Amino acid sequence: MPTLLDQAGIMLWIVALSLLFGGIAGLILGLLLYVTRKGGILQQPIIFWVINILVNTFRPVPFIIFIAAVQPLARVVVGRGIGAEAVVFGISIAASFFIARLVEQNLMSVDPGVIEAARAMGAGPWRIIWTVILPEALGPLVLGYTFAIIALIDMSAVAGIIGGEGLGNYAVAYGYRQFNPVVTWSALFLIVIVVQVIQALGNILARKILRR
């Protein structure tokens, strides 16, 4: 029987890799949604329409269905349909669409007047993106990604159904199925602690950024 801490480490490893891949892809998609929309600094209705349809199509799909549906694709890309690699692959794809919408919404909080002032000073679109839009939205983005990390922890627990390791699978396999509530509650307690720590760190970092 694996130990609680070992499974916690596996869960954090799955979440970290999923955040790396899904977080980068989600940032790119969300940024494209923001800048290519009507009135955006890189207005491109076709690009916006395509990305918007993709996000709206995949984001609402329940993760338990999504992770099962992408198993064949996971076999092609990572060589297996179950296990930690397949879980990271599935979570990364799901997270990219989820985070894309978070990024878009947080970028919408940027004051249009600041963007217009940068335009008036002769700044080009890409310079505005890197020196105005992203820095101005950094605080809300940190809070958004904090929320995303917690959602990834939830996804990693659900992904245990396809053979993924971690606290979710540990609680079900060695707690629920073996009628051992101590194991189940221990895993639950540790997940709650991890979530509280992540949320606190995200709040502190966002607060420091917003005070600048």
From TrEMBL:
Coiled coil residues, start to end: none
Highest rank taxon of the organism: Bacteria
Record keywords: Cell membrane, Membrane, Transmembrane, Transmembrane helix, Transport
Places the protein is found: Cell membrane
Pfam family, one: BPD_transp_1
PROSITE patterns to which the protein is assigned, alphabetical: ABC_TM1
Transmembrane segments: 12-34, 46-70, 82-103, 137-162, 182-206
Residue ranges of domain ABC transmembrane type-1 in the record: 8-206
Bilayer topology: Multi-pass membrane protein
Family listed: Belongs to the binding-protein-dependent transport system permease family.
PANTHER family per the UniProt record, alphabetical: ABC TRANSPORTER PERMEASE, TRANSPORTER, PERMEASE PROTEIN, PUTATIVE-RELATED
Protein's name according to its UniProt entry: ABC transporter permease
Protein species of origin: Citricoccus muralis
